[in-house]
Backbone:
């Protein structure tokens, strides 16, 4: 009921210190079809559910190559995800042009998160409605990150996002103790 | 009822993670007169329903030539479609001027989708109210894409948009198994 | 009743995919005093109803010369029409200065329609409240176009706009079958 | 009652195709003290009612000289009228500086009307609340125009604006048939 | 009651053609402590009521010297008045620097009024909440003007503004017939 | 009750000619912890109540040195006060750099007041929520000013602001008749 | 109840002189997981609670290194905290590049507070939703500051922020009298 007072403007805080518009954008991620990612010490695997709209259509692209060493799987608003992927591609090209070495995954993830944060603090924009699983390898090994609409990011050994991702997460946590070993090693 | 709280501003998320203004713009596509597209490995056919307003009027142009190798059929707000067609024409001319080769269809479609995405994330704009069937041929063969107001695009073997397009889609799916064969081949 | 939720902002879509503010602007055209246009293969005739406000006033100018080969008759907000006529005049002058040939009628009509479309997609503007019958002759013969506030345009053999234009349209359709012959020829 | 939905924003159309804010601004002209203008073939006379606020005050200036050949009488918001008069003076000076001949009256009136039109199509402005009777002589003879807040202008042989101007208009129409003769001549 | 529909935005006209926000700003002048001005042919006297806030405070400055030949007394928002006085001072300095003669009083008053008018036609501003009695002498003799928040100005022989100024005005009108004589002479 | 119609926007006048948002900002000064200032002919004393938030914290700085000859004590929003102090410091440095003499206290106070006034006339800002007691000495002796959120300033011999300052003011007025003598002398 | 009138816009004062949006942002700090800081004369210790979202995730980074001599621990919106940390890092690098000495902690804290204050005075932004414990050492010894969303900062000997920080604060105050000795010494 009273939520409506505070939840239509991205720059309005609720009395409990929450930004509802950011939370609603995260809800959009939950509505998207699922995407999962796993990593060992040396490799990252990204996968997602693709349902073609009709027999005559190809499926919509939801995994994007960013650079030779980085890829991304998305859940939520595909258009927002595509725009962000393009941004990541540009950053990678600029970095390797300037420094003649591939952009470290963790660094790209921070830039992506900062770009998302800006959209949560301007009244004329809206938070991106997409979650991104960013996987890649660099000098420090293989990495899997989850970037969410709030401008936060988290590093994972294995993670799933999108609709019915809870089942996937439970499955991953049960079966992949061996991954956890690798993670600590 | 409660939808009204979240559906008048394009940059406002609903609690369920939806952007109602984008969905309403897609409704405008459904209200437009129908357009269909089909493709084989080498050719694309675009067609649309044209009802002249009166005996003394010509019909309104709803299929536009973009370049020698690309055409577009629209459903929805004709004015928005015309403006987007002009944008596509300019992109094609610039590309062939710079690279002396025709702009690949898939690349043009992405640029078009990005332009549509921007209009879903600025509070002083509105999403385009038009769906575009973009057909064209390039080095990778013949392509048929559908660009929708949300900034998404889909590749199809055959597709129909606009009012009563469901019947057309059903017809296409039933009769054109041969197309599907070509699609896989 | 519920329309009011969606019809006060030009950049707000209604749930049924309509832009009410654009439709209301078209209503302004219907309230203006009538204007009609007819064309043969070689000539265009524009006419409009002019009621002087008082015995001592001249009538308000509602037909404007744009260039030697183009004229325009308006219905609706005269001030908006005058501003658009001036825009058209400037475009014609620039074209003939650059290319040393008159601006083709169809090309001018598209530019005019694009200018109108912009006003339907910015939250701080309003759609023009005027309909324009643009008549002119160029290398491809005589043309009669109707430009409406939505950013659409239509080619006609004969057309009428403004208040009680329906009667005029019916009359035109009945009596001018010969025009239709010319149109096809 | 329901008018209120559409009449507080200058860029909002009513369902009947009216711009209420423009009409309200015209109401401000009706509230101002009266001004009248008459013209023969060679001369224009402008006059207005001036009531001093108190015995110790001079009256407020409501007739302004624009140039040697042009003057203006206003009804409505005096401050708006003064600002527009200054604009007209600047235009006259610039014209005569550039072309070494006086600015034709009709041309100035159009520029003034265009300036007024802009204020009816920007959400952060308001229509001018003043009506202007512009009288002047140039090579084509003597002219009397009425510029109203909507951006329209009308040429008159004799006209009255402001509060209780209806009586003045009736008087003018009855007594000045001779003026009408001149007007046609 | 219904006034509230039209009286919170400075750029919104009421149906009766009034700008309530401007009228409310004039109310602020009436709430300020009184200021009066009188003039003969050669001199102007400005005076105002100054109540110190406490025994330990000096009174707030409400009469400002603008230039050697011009002074101003204010009623209403002192901060607004001070800002406008500074503007006037700058204008006087610039004029005398450029033309080596003092700025005529009437000319300064018009510039001041134009500055006030702008604040009544921009949605992001508010009208100044101050009335200014501007007194000064120049080649054409002594002058007393009243500039009000609406952008209007009036010339007076004697005038009073601020709270309970009506009594002062009545007194001035009764006793100063001799002033009126001077005024006409 | 009805106040709410006029008191949420800083640029909206109430029907009684008041700016409620400015008055509310002055309320913030009353809520701050108290600050007092006293002056003789040659010295100014500033003092304020500082309550540390906890045993382990230092108290918050509420008296700032502006220049060698000027200091300021604040009550209300400390962050606003600190930003304004920094502004004052910059002004002092620039002045002494340009003129090789210290900035007179009265002049600094006017600049500060003008900065505050601007925030009461722009719709996208808010008035500063801080009161400043500015004390300093210059060629004309010692001065104590109070700058308030409305853009006004007052000179005092002794003054107190902030919560429960009324008791302090009463005390000051009773005991410091000797100050008053100095003030007049 | 009535609070809602004043608490959705960051630039709107409540009648009691409060900025509710700033207070709500401070509430976000209270919702974040706890962070604490302690300091002796020569060292600062920062610590925070890190709960990993799942067994397969690493924890989210909540302590950032700013420079060799400065670190920060955050509670609240992690994305806001990360953006501010980056700002601090840039300031430190610029300072040491220009002056070849490390940026004093107190100076950095003021710049950070000023950046936060700006977000409380622009209608199109929102206050940062993060509290920062800034710890560092410089020539004047070891320092611990708390920067809060309102633009205020406080120096502490020991402090805790975030959810259930009250217990931590009580613990710190009881056990660390020895710290207090150091603080005074």
Residues:
């Amino acid at each position: 009921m009273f939520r409506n007072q505070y939840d239509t403007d991205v720059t309005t805080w609720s009395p409990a210190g929450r930004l509802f518009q950011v939370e609603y954008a995260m809800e959009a991620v939950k509505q998207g079809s699922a995407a999962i990612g796993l990593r060992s010490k040396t490799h990252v695997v990204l996968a997602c559910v693709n349902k073609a709209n009709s027999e005559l259509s190809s499926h919509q692209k939801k995994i994007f190559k960013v650079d030779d060493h980085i890829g991304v799987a998305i859940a939520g608003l595909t258009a927002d995800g595509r725009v962000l992927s393009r941004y990541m591609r540009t950053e990678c090209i600029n970095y390797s042009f300037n420094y003649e070495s591939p952009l470290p995954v963790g660094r790209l993830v921070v830039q992506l998160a900062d770009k998302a944060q800006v959209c949560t603090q301007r009244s004329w924009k809206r938070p991106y409605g997409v979650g991104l699983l960013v996987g890649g390898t660099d000098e420090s090994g293989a990495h899997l990150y989850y970037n969410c609409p709030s401008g936060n990011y988290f590093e994972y050994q294995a993670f799933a996002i999108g609709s019915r991702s809870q089942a996937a997460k439970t499955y991953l946590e049960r079966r992949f103790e061996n991954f956890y070993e690798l993670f600590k090693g």
Summary: The beta strands of chain B are 35-39, 44-48, 63-67, 70-76, 130-138, 141-147, 153-155, 158-161. The two ends of chain B are 50 Å apart (CA to CA). Chain B touches chain A through 40 residues (CB under 8 Å).
